[in-house]
Amino acid sequence: MQNNNSIHLQDIWCVIPTFNNLKTIQKVAFDCQKYLPQILVVDDGSTEGNIAELFANTKVKVLKHEKNLGKGQAIRSALDFIQKHNGKFMLTIDADLQHYPEDLAKFIALLDQNEAAIIIGCRDFKQKNVPGKSQFGRAFSNFWLRLETGVAINDSQSGFRSYPVRYLAQIKTSGNYYDFETEILTRASWAGLALKEVPIKVFYPEAHLRVSSFHPLLDNLRISLMHLRLIGRRLIPLPYPKVISRIKNNQSLKIFTHPLKLLKNLLQENATPLGLAISAGVGVFLGVLPLVSFHMLAVLYVTSRLHLNKIMALSVQNLCMPPFVPVACIEMGHFLLHQKWLTVISWQAIFGNIPERIWEWFLGSLVLAPLLTLIISIIIYFTAQGIQRQLIKNAKHS
Fold it and tell me: Does domain 9-235 have CATH number 3.30.2060.10?
């Protein structure tokens, strides 16, 4: 059995992680079997019913975790199984009827030309019953993925995906729950894999009919902590382990010979309201710290690593130039050390004892930097949002 390209359907496994989806898992698996002959259900410690019994005397394979280990670990278990059976691709689909199995055909059609890519199903959110928290979560995750990789994806939280098995097996990950799906996209991009999307349909029942194993508080915390870890790793100037080498496009170097194009690119990079707010926040935070003579270099380094707007960060950083902000930090630091304010503000008082003043500047900056960062970021965000709305409004009337 073979599709129109050179990929054999026997090379592809459809993986369905499940946890207490007793009412829907059988339908999802059998509907997927219409498009792919090899179906693997991973029962991640379900406490309701017997998933294996549902597929007795069928060709659907079932793996079982004795206890709930998380979706990430379920996908790893599936990966190990597929490797042992010489599979080349793993397509994951949710077990709650949110996804439409007929969309598997869209993924299959792309595999032949994307053997070194993770293909993500981009859900259509322009329909009723889409939870507001899902829309926010998707936008939140998309933003952080772009900071970490520079890649713009419209639905980085979709669980309907295609993974190339041999490359995925070489990428080390630590997330065991939904944070795995966050982590794998970033680490795969760092490892040289492409991230691509395909439009898919999605079904959301009314709120009282939804069944989900996603725990809003705990899983969102795990995802947020994972993003912090990935951002921290991104700021470390060490190379990432590569599983595939890609040919670099020298066009990116040619832009430096065209100053106007370079300026246009710098102005447009990550120019969303949130992107500009984060860029401004980075500029302020680093500008407040006592990085004497290195503020600009620090701002350029961080904004380059995180694909932020350099023009915004450098412009806002100038607000922290001497004398006001450094003196305010020194005053705060002096108060923290001596429980009294530095009442004599003069050249001698500030610069007469440089080591002590630098230490006070540093301590004071730990208080003022987060505060000023928050204030400036909020101002920039709402200002940029207002300008963006006005531009859209003007465009509609023109």
Answer: no
